[in-house]
Amino acid sequence: MEKTILVFLLAYLLGSLVPGFWIGKLFYHKDIRTEGSGNIGTTNAFRSLGPVAGTTVLVFDMLKGVAAALLPALFHVDINVMYVGLAAILGHTFSLWIGFKGGKAVATSAGVLAVYNPALFWMVVATFILCLVLFSMVSVASMVGFTFASIMSVFYYQDIILSIVAIALTVFVFYRHRQNLGRILKGQESTIPFGLVYWSKKAK
């Protein structure tokens, strides 16, 4: 029981690390929470701090999920990886370092999935990239990616635990992107400098 509690605690603490906030403060003297969208994740890091910082935040946020998912094996505890991964995702979303606020948990969730089901992880990555190519919007790619993961979990893998977690996270991601959805419907959502939508706007 003690090991189980320790694993969940460590997973939460790993997830609660805020590389976007710390990198902004240490190297750019900016509080990323007051820049761009105010989010501490990859997209806002790219937008507010640049591609080097954005890539670094992406890698570290994913590694948080990977590290948390590996904890059961490290401590020889028989717990489903997805449960422990949820603790890391909660840590990212409600970080103790920034007043129990946080990001949208897309990269950290991807890190957990990479350990739990590598094949599905790469399919989700491919779906995400395809959406970026088509729509030039990280928000759209994130929501479609989670929806795809849920559909595959339920109908292809028929993994009950993965299905429940994937659906719950999909609902959560849509909720966290509710402002993005409003901007998408109004045609005001920010685009990345890549993809068909971006190129079509540049061509006008």
UniProtKB/TrEMBL annotation:
Belongs to the PlsY family. InterPro entries: G3P_acylTferase_PlsY. Keywords: Acyltransferase, Cell membrane, Lipid biosynthesis, Lipid metabolism, Membrane, Phospholipid biosynthesis, Phospholipid metabolism, Transferase, Transmembrane, Transmembrane helix. Probably interacts with PlsX. It is found in: Cell membrane. Its main location: membrane. Catalyzes the transfer of an acyl group from acyl-phosphate (acyl-PO(4)) to glycerol-3-phosphate (G3P) to form lysophosphatidic acid (LPA). This enzyme utilizes acyl-phosphate as fatty acyl donor, but not acyl-CoA or acyl-ACP. The gene is plsY. It comes from Fructobacillus apis. This is Glycerol-3-phosphate acyltransferase.
